[in-house]
Amino acid sequence: xxxxxxxxxxxxTLRQGVPTSIYWRSPQLQDKTLERVFDEVADRTSKSDIQxxxxxxxxxxxxxxxxxRREDTEVFEEMKVAFRRTIKEGKKHEITNFKILxxxxxxxxxxxxxxxAVSDETDVEF
Length: 126
What we know:
By secondary structure, the protein is an alpha+beta fold. The protein has one domain: Roll (Ubiquitin-like (UB roll)). The chain has helices spanning 34-45, 73-92, and strands at residues 6-14, 20-24, 52-59, 62-69, 97-105. The protein has a 5-stranded mixed β-sheet, with helices on one face. The N and C termini lie far apart (54 Å).
Protein backbone atom coordinates (compact mmCIF):
# COMPACT_ATOMS: atom_id res chain seq x y z
CA UNK A 1 0.00 0.00 0.00
CA UNK A 2 1.44 3.37 -1.00
CA UNK A 3 -0.92 6.03 0.38
CA UNK A 4 -0.17 9.69 0.14
CA UNK A 5 1.33 11.24 3.25
CA UNK A 6 -0.96 13.73 5.00
CA UNK A 7 0.46 16.18 7.52
CA UNK A 8 -2.15 18.64 8.74
CA UNK A 9 -1.19 21.66 10.85
CA UNK A 10 -3.42 23.37 13.41
CA UNK A 11 -2.88 26.36 15.68
CA UNK A 12 -4.76 25.83 18.95
CA THR A 13 -6.37 29.10 19.96
CA LEU A 14 -8.51 28.03 22.93
CA ARG A 15 -8.34 25.11 25.37
CA GLN A 16 -10.99 26.20 27.90
CA GLY A 17 -14.62 25.47 27.15
CA VAL A 18 -14.87 24.22 23.59
CA PRO A 19 -11.34 23.60 22.25
CA THR A 20 -10.75 25.72 19.15
CA SER A 21 -8.06 25.52 16.53
CA ILE A 22 -7.25 27.10 13.18
CA TYR A 23 -6.25 24.93 10.23
CA TRP A 24 -2.94 26.16 8.85
CA ARG A 25 -2.66 25.19 5.19
CA SER A 26 0.87 24.36 3.98
CA PRO A 27 3.03 26.05 6.62
CA GLN A 28 6.23 24.25 5.49
CA LEU A 29 7.73 24.33 8.99
CA GLN A 30 10.90 22.56 7.90
CA ASP A 31 11.81 25.50 5.66
CA LYS A 32 11.08 28.33 8.12
CA THR A 33 13.06 30.04 10.82
CA LEU A 34 11.73 30.01 14.34
CA GLU A 35 11.24 33.79 14.24
CA ARG A 36 9.10 33.47 11.11
CA VAL A 37 6.97 30.72 12.68
CA PHE A 38 6.36 32.93 15.73
CA ASP A 39 5.40 35.86 13.48
CA GLU A 40 3.01 33.78 11.36
CA VAL A 41 1.36 32.22 14.41
CA ALA A 42 0.95 35.72 15.89
CA ASP A 43 -0.75 36.84 12.65
CA ARG A 44 -3.12 33.85 12.68
CA THR A 45 -4.07 34.22 16.34
CA SER A 46 -3.99 38.03 16.69
CA LYS A 47 -1.74 37.56 19.73
CA SER A 48 1.17 39.94 19.67
CA ASP A 49 3.29 38.97 22.68
CA ILE A 50 3.92 35.25 22.21
CA GLN A 51 6.51 33.98 24.69
CA UNK A 52 6.61 30.34 23.61
CA UNK A 53 4.86 27.79 21.43
CA UNK A 54 4.27 24.14 22.21
CA UNK A 55 4.73 22.05 19.08
CA UNK A 56 3.18 18.58 19.00
CA UNK A 57 3.47 15.88 16.39
CA UNK A 58 0.59 13.45 16.77
CA UNK A 59 0.09 10.14 15.00
CA UNK A 60 -1.32 6.76 15.96
CA UNK A 61 1.92 5.45 17.46
CA UNK A 62 3.52 8.54 19.02
CA UNK A 63 3.03 12.06 20.31
CA UNK A 64 6.09 14.29 20.48
CA UNK A 65 5.92 17.61 22.35
CA UNK A 66 8.39 20.48 22.36
CA UNK A 67 7.87 23.71 24.27
CA UNK A 68 9.98 26.28 22.45
CA ARG A 69 10.70 29.88 23.43
CA ARG A 70 11.30 32.50 20.75
CA GLU A 71 15.09 32.42 21.24
CA ASP A 72 15.40 28.58 21.30
CA THR A 73 16.58 28.13 17.71
CA GLU A 74 18.72 25.07 18.54
CA VAL A 75 15.78 23.32 20.17
CA PHE A 76 13.62 24.21 17.16
CA GLU A 77 16.15 22.56 14.82
CA GLU A 78 16.29 19.48 17.09
CA MET A 79 12.50 19.32 17.04
CA LYS A 80 12.40 19.41 13.24
CA VAL A 81 14.85 16.49 13.09
CA ALA A 82 12.81 14.50 15.62
CA PHE A 83 9.56 15.20 13.73
CA ARG A 84 11.17 14.19 10.42
CA ARG A 85 12.47 10.91 11.94
CA THR A 86 9.08 10.10 13.42
CA ILE A 87 7.30 10.75 10.13
CA LYS A 88 9.80 8.53 8.28
CA GLU A 89 9.33 5.80 10.88
CA GLY A 90 5.57 6.07 10.49
CA LYS A 91 5.81 5.81 6.71
CA LYS A 92 7.75 2.54 7.09
CA HIS A 93 4.73 1.18 8.98
CA GLU A 94 2.27 2.60 6.42
CA ILE A 95 1.10 5.36 8.75
CA THR A 96 0.23 8.32 6.56
CA ASN A 97 -1.85 10.64 8.75
CA PHE A 98 -0.04 13.06 11.04
CA LYS A 99 -1.07 16.26 12.82
CA ILE A 100 1.19 19.03 13.96
CA LEU A 101 -0.40 21.17 16.65
CA UNK A 102 0.97 24.52 17.72
CA UNK A 103 -0.26 26.04 20.97
CA UNK A 104 0.64 29.57 22.00
CA UNK A 105 1.82 30.46 25.49
CA UNK A 106 1.73 34.19 26.11
CA UNK A 107 3.21 33.89 29.55
CA UNK A 108 -0.10 34.56 31.27
CA UNK A 109 0.06 33.91 35.01
CA UNK A 110 -1.56 30.72 36.20
CA UNK A 111 -4.32 30.82 38.80
CA UNK A 112 -2.79 30.63 42.24
CA UNK A 113 -4.41 29.50 45.48
CA UNK A 114 -4.03 31.88 48.40
CA UNK A 115 -2.55 29.64 51.09
CA UNK A 116 -3.69 32.01 53.85
CA ALA A 117 -7.33 31.38 52.87
CA VAL A 118 -7.01 27.65 53.63
CA SER A 119 -6.84 26.51 57.22
CA ASP A 120 -6.35 23.06 58.76
CA GLU A 121 -9.45 23.74 60.87
CA THR A 122 -11.72 24.30 57.88
CA ASP A 123 -14.25 21.54 57.31
CA VAL A 124 -14.02 20.32 53.76
CA GLU A 125 -16.57 17.97 52.24
CA PHE A 126 -16.03 16.11 49.06
